[in-house]
Structure of F5/8 type C domain-containing protein:
Amino acid sequence: MELQVLLGPLALLELLGLLELLELLELLGLLGLMMLLGLLALLLIKWLARRAPPNQQRSVALLPAISAAFLGGDKNSRCGAARCIDGETSATSGACKEIEGATYFCMSNAQSNPWLRLDLGRDCIVHEVHIYNRPTPCCRSAFGTHEIWVGSVATSATDNTRCYTGTAASDALSVVDPCIVGGTGVTGRYLYVRLPGDDRTITLAEVQVHGTVVAATVAPTATSFPTTISPASGT
């Protein structure tokens, strides 16, 4: 409806021609012209806002994961998958050994097509993923080519929806990967960071997911009706 209201005045002005337009502007004066332009701008903004998908009208925020796991398990207890969701974006330890006061990276076993799975705890619409690489120079290049998958399947990355494939620079300390399919974010409870190929190792400092929580739908409650029939009703 707003689009029709918006296009109506534009079409009318076009039909009036240049002479009629000049006469109209002279009739309206400066104040009237400003009011007309303001009205057209307002209608355009409202129309564009209505065209945006509902999940893009909400603000994008950090979605904290409640747990993390590697395919094939952790390298060891100090560098487990949970280190990738502990809030520390720069690991100070150079290795998975006991260092007092150190912050650690997460590290998987070397294998084919390893993945790191984050459980967001509920369905979310993922828009982008911030990944902080292991900062030690020895191992930054291990990240390289990687994929982002999102969905409801907790046992396999590739049974979900792939929203990103890319290659990080060999010395990259962090990357921001968009998670967009068909112009919108991808919905799911589980997010996977997957490294395709043989003999790959996931070793990262932190993975942060940004998006929106899917609003819970409230099921309608059944309306209760009297189970007895009044004699006065005659039925």
